[in-house]
């Protein structure tokens, strides 16, 4: 029933807890895990800054890959098949939903709030958007 679990990952504490839930469920259901991080593409308004924006995107991508790589040993030691992706996106929510549909994800496990700065939201905008628009079940972890 749960063959493919997707974890949107952004290094936040809720994302780390979502990862732990995913590992536990993957062991029980013999599932594959996809860890997906998103880097928002910054479009320069002035061509003069184009190189700086490209360099920033490159650094953000490298940081996301480094963060994901720290999770891999846990998956290997648990013998859980996995894949990792860093997506360069304009809309995080839309990209996560598209990824889940394209890759036949059965369950999305997402942290309740990411690294966004607007703390008074009870539920992060990405988690809220994914839970409202996803065609598969979504488990939101606090």
Write structural notes for this entry:
It is built from five helices and five strands. With 142 residues, it is of the alpha/beta class. A five-stranded parallel beta sheet has the order 3-2-1-4-5, with helices on both faces. Helix 4 (92-102) runs parallel beside helix 5. The longest helix is centred in the middle third of the chain and has 20 residues, at 50-69. It is globular.
Sheet with the most strands: spatial strand order: 3-2-1-4-5
Mean pLDDT: 89
Report how far apart the termini are.
Answer: 24 Å
Specify the structural class. alpha/beta
Q: pLDDT below 50 for ≥5 consecutive residues: which ranges? A: 117-123
What's the total count of β strands? 5
Radius of gyration: 15 Å
Assembly state here? single chain
Shape: globular
Q: Helices and strands, in N-to-C order? A: EHEHHEHEHE
Give a quick account of the main beta sheet: strands, pairing sense, barrel closure. 5 strands, parallel
């Amino acid at each position: 029933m749960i063959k493919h679990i997707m974890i949107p990952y952004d290094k936040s504490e809720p994302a780390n807890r979502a990862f732990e839930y995913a590992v536990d469920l993957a062991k029980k259901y013999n599932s594959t895990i996809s860890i997906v991080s998103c880097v928002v593409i910054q479009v320069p308004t002035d061509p003069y800054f184009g190189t700086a924006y490209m360099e920033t995107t490159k650094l953000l991508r490298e940081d996301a890959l480094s963060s994901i790589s720290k999770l891999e040993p846990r998956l290997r030691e648990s013998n859980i098949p996995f894949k990792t992706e860093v997506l360069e996106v304009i809309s995080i929510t839309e990209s996560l939903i598209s990824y889940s549909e394209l890759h036949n994800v059965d369950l999305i496990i997402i942290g309740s709030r990411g690294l966004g700065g607007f703390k008074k939201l009870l539920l992060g905008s990405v988690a809220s958007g994914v839970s409202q628009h996803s065609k598969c079940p979504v488990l939101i972890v606090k």
